[in-house]
Amino acid sequence: MSLPNLAPIPELYVSHESAQKLKVEAGELVSWDLTPRQICDLELLMNGGFNPLKGFLSEADYDGVVENMRLADGSLWPMPITLDVSEKFADGIAPGQDIALRDQEGVILAILSVTDKWVPNKAREAEKVFGADDLAHPAVNYLHNVAGPVYLGGPITGIQQPVHYDFKARRDTPNELRAYFRKLGWRKIVAFQTRNPLHRAHQELTFRAAKEAEANLLIHPVVGMTKPGDVDHFTRVRCYEAVLDKYPQSTTTMSLLNLAMRMAGPREAVWHGLIRANHGVTHFIVGRDHAGPGKNSQGVDFYGPYDAQELFKQYEDEIGVTMVDFKHMVYVQEKASYFPANEVPEGCTVLDISGTELRRRLREGLEIPEWFSFPEVVTELRRTSPPRAKQGFTVFFTGLSGSGKSTIANALMVKLMEMGGRPVTLLDGDVVRKHLSSELGFSKEHRDINIKRIGYVASEITKNGGIAICAPIAPYTSTRRAVREMIEAYGAFVEVHVATPIEECEKRDRKGLYKLAREGKIKEFTGISDPYEAPANPELAVNTVDVDVDHCAHQVILKLEAMGLIKA
Hints:
Elements: H1 16-25, E1 30-33, H2 36-46, E2 55-56, H3 59-68, E3 83-85, H4 87-91, E4 98-102, E5 108-113, E6 116-118, H5 122-130, H6 138-145, E7 150-158, H7 174-184, E8 189-192, H8 200-213, E9 216-219, H9 233-244, E10 252-254, H10 265-278, E11 283-286, H11 307-319, E12 322-325, E13 329-332, E14 337-340, E15 350-351, H12 355-364, H13 375-384, E16 393-398, H14 405-419, E17 424-428, H15 429-435, H16 444-463, E18 467-471, H17 477-488, E19 492-498, H18 502-508, H19 513-518, E20 540-542, H20 549-562
Parallel strand pairs: 1-4, 8-9, 8-11, 9-10, 11-12, 16-18, 16-19, 17-18, 19-20
Antiparallel strand pairs: 2-7, 3-7, 4-5, 5-7, 6-7, 13-14, 13-15
Helix pairs in contact: 5-6, 9-13, 10-11, 14-20, 16-17
Pfam family, one: APS_kinase
Pathway: Sulfur metabolism; hydrogen sulfide biosynthesis; sulfite from sulfate: step 2/3
Family: Belongs to the APS kinase family.
């Protein structure tokens, strides 16, 4: 009996011979170097993971997807897959033109035949796709502050897949997975989507789901881009491999999905279902608040706990995959086993550890009980997340010129060096300008480049267990957020707003800069002719009016102690 979920699906790759020929011809084409997110999207376009898409969306398809989750031909598709580019690049491109798409090393991956070029309404896209134009949503922030302002659309000619040097044996295209299921004679397959390490509750949940659906189990974690601050995929895959031994080998397999998540909640659940259908799966576990990004600017969850399950159910027939709803599993002490939360016997003690509590225990080096997670998983997590007092971190001072940032930063550096234990590096705004950014001016674009360079160096120091102290003006919220995300991938980011009023800064004006700015002799001067966007929620705010430097530096030390970054 032929099963449609196991038959091969179309890919966008040309033959090896054609690819060799196109590589040579592409030398003459204009090239676009893809961003990490675009590489993830392109890989799933080319290997059929995004079937029925034949390339990056045209304007008509984009409009349909944004407005009502449908392509122009009526097919269900909830997520805009667009090639965003800079204005400068777009100016040189016209519909009817071919462009070479290359990875960050310049290796050609595909050719895009441009059919459409347009400037999207990003506020509308945010509202319709993510439910709100709110920068607290990581994908909305990406849309406004990272993605290019112009979209290009058109079909793709796939030349070769992106190279992955890690976990090669665990990476499968949709057709490779379908062939594997055919070979093993698996008819029904339930997929489990995850971007977090697996603990005992997840194992119980997946066991039950497979049993309920009378299906085999595919653990299908995302290793592309997830939410900023998530555990890195190298650590997660080592954790998954440790847990895989706990499953019966003949009924369970694991494959890695190189997907760039958007954290779009209900729409994302439908999207994940369509992607899994392309991978030959028949059932899919949809969780509570599936792919939710957490809280919005008002401190309320972006999506309701069951919104994703409800939307998936609505489109289940079209997706072609049966939903298995995620049961919240809790540990029942008296029974020494896991139960769905709504099936706990009366009078029993329920034990549960939230993600926040787990991170706290890791941060403080506290015990993580065996009923909660497997010792092998805890060992892996501790290797990557040692207690905070042993991790690198960054203290990022921001404030107006003359507010006292550099002076406090120097005092803090001396105090931390006196304590010892970790190397301390000061990245002062003026010093960085001299050595790292001497060619940059003071336009918004150049200021952003300068701050991102500081952030990059600080993230490398943090990653390697050191302490970075940064003291630039850093006037723009979006740039500070980008730096925070860069650093929080490796350790803590402590933003200190030196909130000295501008009147006091002008009084101090040692370098005479404010006077020159008032006279119009310095253009784009922060606080005078250029805005300073004060941080809304810094880890610490200090005001240096009538307060000595030692006291301010001591406040920072107390904050670092309270956060567990240095020992009291």
